[in-house]
From TrEMBL:
<dbReference type="InterPro" id="IPR011006">
    <property type="entry name" value="CheY-like_superfamily"/>
</dbReference>
<keyword id="KW-0597">Phosphoprotein</keyword>
<dbReference type="InterPro" id="IPR052893">
    <property type="entry name" value="TCS_response_regulator"/>
</dbReference>
<protein>
    <submittedName>
        <fullName>Response regulator</fullName>
    </submittedName>
</protein>
<feature type="domain" description="Response regulatory">
    <location>
        <begin position="1"/>
        <end position="83"/>
    </location>
</feature>
<dbReference type="Pfam" id="PF00072">
    <property type="entry name" value="Response_reg"/>
</dbReference>
<dbReference type="InterPro" id="IPR001789">
    <property type="entry name" value="Sig_transdc_resp-reg_receiver"/>
</dbReference>
<feature type="modified residue" description="4-aspartylphosphate">
    <location>
        <position position="23"/>
    </location>
</feature>
Amino acid sequence: MLERSARFGYRGQHPLPALVLLDLKLPRRSGLEVLRWIRSQPHLATMPVVVLTSSSEDEDIQKAYALGANSYLQKPVAFNGLV
């Protein structure tokens, strides 16, 4: 959808999201790779991206901000903590 592929190319029907919530642990590529790609796309450069992940590693936090994350939130393990 973010790539403007043919399936999602018509913005009247498929507008861009107002915000991206991004986990770092994704099945096919890391969230940091996705963030790097988002920030390299001129039409997405100003889209707010919030990293919402279980990682509290300082290295992950620093990389996310260096790549242009607007915020970094560590999600709690328990569901009630997330709510």
